[in-house]
Write a structure and sequence with these properties.
Blueprint lengths: L12 H4 L2 E4 L6 E2 L2 E2 L3 H10 L3 E6 L6 H10 L9 E3 H10 L7 E5 L2 H9 L3 E3 L8 E4 L7 H12 L3 E4 L5 E4 L2 E4 L1 H12 L4 E2 L5 H11 L4 E5 L2 H11 L3 E4 L6 H5 L9 E3 L13 E3 L2 E4 L2 E6 L2 E5 L3 H17 L14
Parallel strand pairs: 1-4, 1-13, 4-5, 6-7, 6-8, 8-9, 9-12, 13-14, 14-15
Antiparallel strand pairs: 2-3, 10-11, 16-17, 17-18, 18-19
Helix pairs in contact: 4-5, 6-7, 8-9
GO cellular component, one term: cytoplasm
Protein name: HAD-IIA family hydrolase
GO molecular function: phosphatase activity
């Protein structure tokens, strides 16, 4: 695919899609602060009739806590508008472990509540002979909990993870995420867990069903989780440049992680997104154009964001044709 990897709309995104599945960290907020423009962008989308469901790989907090946090940041949210990786992980358990079985939960209150709600008996130690271990992020996790998980898995318990994000954004930068902590247990046991969170498509399908969406769109800041999962689930994904993945990451993205749309922040929901068009060996978006020639990406004209879109179309076409494209020395595009 070339032009169809990056799509276009004749109307604003908030009119083209009925529900936005919105990631939290790096999209709605970063740490204790809302990302600039997030509250206004989501409020405008709701006013235009777009539904919103927040989808997060964070499994440590209850949906009610997440909703309260968003509301405090000026983004009104009800608990039923939140789907956490804890809820997805508990749902995954039901496919493999009978209700009523003992489960060792390595994680926070959100995961414990979600697993208990599915009818499982929560235990604290490997000596309780759990049928399964499910691991989710919680900042208070330490060696003792990881050791209990290791003992239980080595004794035969099934291993599940809410998500495998290696990092998570904080106000001070990127810190170890659940995937990094899961890696410690994986290394100690030699067992790979079944994962429920993004980028697994099940979480996206569950969220869309919960929201009653007919034309859902995923909004995220990470190509490897949000956008990869959207593609796997067969729904368009919007990359916003407010978190982890930035312009050069999008240019280098493999096909399975490419966004369908790119925006600076959530304010882009109120904008029309022009589709790249190929003419005379140049990819055009508005007044911007780009081409990859002799291994170099050339971009000029138009707005910064349209240059980004044109650059993605040109780079992806060249990469898919087997060419190597250098763009590390490009001027700032976004």
């Amino acid at each position: 695919m070339t032009a169809s990897d990056l799509l276009g709309t004749d109307v604003p995104l908030q009119e083209a899609f009925d529900v936005a599945l919105v990631d939290l960290d790096g999209v709605a907020y970063k740490g204790a602060h809302a990302i600039p423009g997030a509250a206004e962008g989501l409020a405008a989308a709701r006013t235009a009739g777009m539904g919103v469901l927040f989808v997060t790989n964070n499994a440590s907090r209850e949906p009610e806590t997440v909703a309260d946090h968003l509301t405090d940041l000026g983004i009104p949210c009800a608990p039923q508008e939140v789907m956490t990786a804890a809820q997805a992980g508990a749902e995954l358990l039901t496919d493999h472990v009978p209700a009523g079985a003992a489960v060792l939960v390595v994680g926070g209150a959100g995961l414990r509540t979600a697993v208990a709600a599915k009818g499982y008996r929560l235990v604290e130690h490997a000596d309780d002979q759990p049928a399964a271990v499910i691991q989710g992020f919680a900042p208070e996790l330490g060696w003792a909990q990881l050791a209990e998980a290791t003992y239980a898995i080595r004794a035969g318990a099934r291993f599940f993870a809410t998500n495998l994000d290696l990092t998570l954004p904080t106000e001070r930068g990127f810190a170890p995420g659940n995937g990094s902590l899961v890696a410690a247990v994986r290394t100690a046991t030699g067992v790979d867990p079944l994962s429920a969170g993004k980028p697994e498509p099940a979480m996206f399908h569950l969220a869309a069903r919960k929201a009653g969406a007919e034309r859902p769109m995923m909004i995220g800041d990470r190509l490897d989780t949000d956008l990869r999962g959207a593609r796997a689930a067969g729904m368009p994904g919007l990359l916003v440049l407010t978190g982890v993945s930035q312009v050069n990451d999008a240019l280098a993205a493999p096909r399975e992680e490419r966004p369908a749309f790119i925006g600076r922040d959530l304010g882009c929901l109120a904008e029309v997104h022009p589709a790249p068009e190929l003419a005379d060996h140049w990819w055009h978006v508005g007044d911007a154009r780009a081409r990859a020639t002799e291994g170099q990406l050339v971009v000029d004209g138009g707005s910064p964001l349209d240059r980004v879109r044109a650059a993605c179309a040109a780079t992806w076409e060249a990469i898919d044709a087997g060419a190597r494209v250098s763009f590390e020395t490009l001027p700032h595009l976004g």
